[in-house]
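Final report, results section. Input specification for complex C-07:
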Amino acid sequence: MTAVTDVAAQWEATCEVLGGLVSKDAYQRWFRASRLVAVEDSKAVVAVPNDIHQVWIETNYMPELATAVAETMEGVRGVKLVVEDKLPEILEPVSDLDRAVPARSVNVASAAGEVPFEKRLKTSGLNPQFTLDNFVVGANSQFAHAACEAVGKRKGPGYNPLFIHGGSGLGKTHLMQAIGQAYLRSSPTSRVVYLTCEKFTNEFIDAVRKGDLERFRKRYRHAELMLIDDIQFIGGKERSQEEFFHTFNSLLDGRCQVVLTSDRPASEIKSLEPRLVSRFECGLTVEIQPPVFETRLAILQKKRDEWKVKVEEGIIRFLAERIRSNVRRLEGALMRVATFASLAGERVTEDRVEHLLRDLLREETGKQVTVDSIQRAVADHYDVRLADMTSRRRPASIAFPRQIAMYLSRTLTKQSLMEIGEAFGGRDHGTVIHAVKRITAQMELDPSTRDSIGVIEASLRR
Ligand SMILES: Nc1ncnc2c1ncn2[C@@H]1O[C@H](COP(=O)(O)OP(=O)(O)OP(=O)(O)O)[C@@H](O)[C@H]1O
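Structure output:
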């Protein structure tokens, strides 16, 4: 992650453009308290005050924000929103890991006495929100949770390495971070390091480039607990695997506990050296599976209480029934519904939720909606030629359906503004933004536009 040097000036320029794209009210309400913190993977990392801002901006203003960023920040494509409290320590390097002090020689008295626990968590790369206690255990995760508890609380035999695998959004990072936190609680002076595999490989490449491998090695070879997230990303990266193999051996030789997560079993990671596969499998492997209905319900109820949001029990059950594959999606759905309820001030019905979460719900059912299928469905509905979706013709009887198709492409697919413009006869992203705004406004004013869009969406899902 690169810290932007003159962030304030850069952000001011972006906000100036943004101010021209959204209403004054919207700007004041949603963007005034945001700030640019860094650029990561060609994306602007923008901090917002809380989850509500994050969800609201993501749902309603992402195209405008992305356009303002693209116009004012060279080489930056896209935006990542991060809630202030959850900001990783991007602007504050993990300074005390740089000192090559062997883990077991840390001065216990001074370290434990002087450094607050929160600070220790941060230095280790841990997020205080992920604890063993606030992880809802179900049959899908019972074994994984028990293993993590044993490692975190240092009970039982050393499961080394502990390898946790399972699908996306099922709680692997949560459990891994919870191990780190439990470990630090039981032994506050221990050297705990959490990092993603991507960070490991990037730092390794950087160290090779700068001829500074020694420092890199010292940084990671003296941990007592090493937590590496998303290890599957090391697949196919030969030199990083070589380095990781040595790091791994030296950590295990030095009796460091290693925990790894992956979205698949070690043996299924593509282009992973056999010696690493067997190293990863030589400890304990645990799997997290998707939760069943009762567990999904319990997770939602817990999140509702934690976030102190008001969502009726019937809607919670509706979400638990409909969103089955991914806990992150469950959380996102709950947050969206709660945000809507608090801002709209009206009772949230199942129909409302169905509309509000249509993208999420569609992903759950797995039906693929493409720009092409949208263009066909819209042309069919309005009885215009498919060729008119891409033509330059402008009579309202053609321009309006075309704008509806752009609006649906924006809301129902993951295509960028540019890709959508391109698919509509090489139009630019501004035309797509204009279409989205116009149709959104029209839907507010005109029930028949809303109905037509509902009918087209239903036809796309069949
Ligand atoms: N059983 C659970 N109880 C409470 N919260 C959970 C549970 N499972 C997942 N979550 C929450 O769901 C979100 C996603 O979890 P997490 O990031 O740990 O998933 P992951 O498996 O690491 O996903 P990925 O592979 O995409 O990185 C987090 O906010 C986490 O707190």
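The CA atoms of residues 45 and 80 lie 5 Å apart. The chain is about 55% helix and 10% strand. This concludes the modelling results for the funded period.
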